[in-house]
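Reopening this one. Same input as before:
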Amino acid sequence: MSEIYDLHSHSNASDGALSPTELVLRAKQQGVAALALTDHDTTAGLPEARQAAEAAGIRLIPGIELSASFENHCLHIVGLNIDPDHPALVEGVARQQHIRDQRAQKIAEKLAKKGISDAYSVLSRMVGNGEITRLHFADFLVNQGYVETQQDAFDRYLSKGKPGYVPTAWAGLADCIAWITAAGGVAVLAHPLRYKLSTKWINKVLIAFKAAGGQGIEVVTGRASVDDIRLSYLHASKHKLYASVGSDFHAPGNQWLELGRLAALPDGAPPIWQLF
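Same output, byte for byte:
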């Protein structure tokens, strides 16, 4: 039986529910041999996760998930096996965090106009040194009784065209990949089918992604069906990209997004971990 890799997960350093230590211990319980912590636009959880992984006897692959802009689309780029202290990445992360904080303030201002006050101050206290994400706003709306579920929060307030939506100009795709590669990491396009792009557009994205130094694509994700995996592998094969696997785990309770609960890579797919 081959070792279980899970190369996409989140802690409460961004929008996950578990601390880095709790995340590592859960991964260990789920039989994961190699875990990447890939929080949104931050590496703050990595020191704690590294210490926990050493104690638990599993391999931690330091990572990050960067939000990137490409021709009016927001893409997520996972960086694997990074040096989180590399100056280029540190500077890039600081830039992303500034953009993210500005977005959070604007979302809170829009919600206030709808009679929903104090969101930014409440969330700032809650996350401490962490990142405020849209998922945090969704939880705030649930906890304050404005909606019943996270999905309701997005449907009524946070999605495009809704009262709390704020368009965001993230760093460019090439910049994000450059920060990752400068830090010795491998850039992977996360969950390629989630963007709902046409075949023409996904090819355009992958051509630009590879030209900028991207090397991998998530072929197996937590929600992927057999058809999803087949289609993602076709994209990987066409563009000669390595195949990655990741649950995109955020919190317990969702059986479809559990650490290590991932299908096998298709036969012949070159695994991304060959590169590190």
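So the earlier flakiness isn't reproducible anymore. For the record, The two ends are 21 Å apart (CA to CA).
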